[in-house]
Amino acid sequence: MIRKEDITGLVLAGGRGSRMGGVDKGLQNHRGVPLALHALLRLQPQVGATMISANRNLSAYEAMAPVWPDSVEGYAGPLAGLLTGMERAESPWLVTVPCDTPEFPEDFVERLATAAADQGADIAMVSTLEEGEVRRQPVFCLLRTDLMDSLVAYLHSGERKFDKWTAQHRVIEVVFEEADAFFNANTREELQQLQKLK
Fold first, then answer.
1. How far apart are CA 127 and CA 177, in angstroms?
2. Mean pLDDT of the chain, nearest integer
3. Which among 49, 55, 82, 86 has the fewest CB atoms less than 10 Å away?
4. CA separation (Å) from 49 to 9, 25, 149?
5. What is the pLDDT of residues 184-198, one digit of tens each?
6. DSSP label of 58
């Protein structure tokens, strides 16, 4: 069994926001509140501690939770944020959520933790069922923080692909049928769509 207290939650808000015109996506307004704060508030009851990975506007994020910029230079993608979370977490497990998906299930961490414990996995990852097809959602993952050395070596080799790194470890996918809960806003249009989801 993996206890809630043994999991640190990390909101990934360190991207360039290039598909949204270069804006800081985590600070975009969703129903009067920044996207990253929505994600944080939804994550907090599911974990023992929370923090944010961000690379700009750090003071705005600091008002929400402890915030850490990537330790790897040059916007190296979600794996760089993941590494920062592993370096800073004081728990054996880390769970990540992207800042642009504010409606994820309120029990998703528990479901990943149960599956990881039952199957002895290093990494438990969300998959969604969409039109009969199972699609991985790799940035929604629970993983052991002692995988840090493996991730450091992978990033130093110049690699950046999430799936290629996770494939080196014992990964399980946990299927969620509520695909809408994992709808993410990459563009301004999708942000408007998000407003209409609920």
1. 9
2. 90
3. 49
4. 6, 23, 22
5. 877 777 777 777 765
6. H
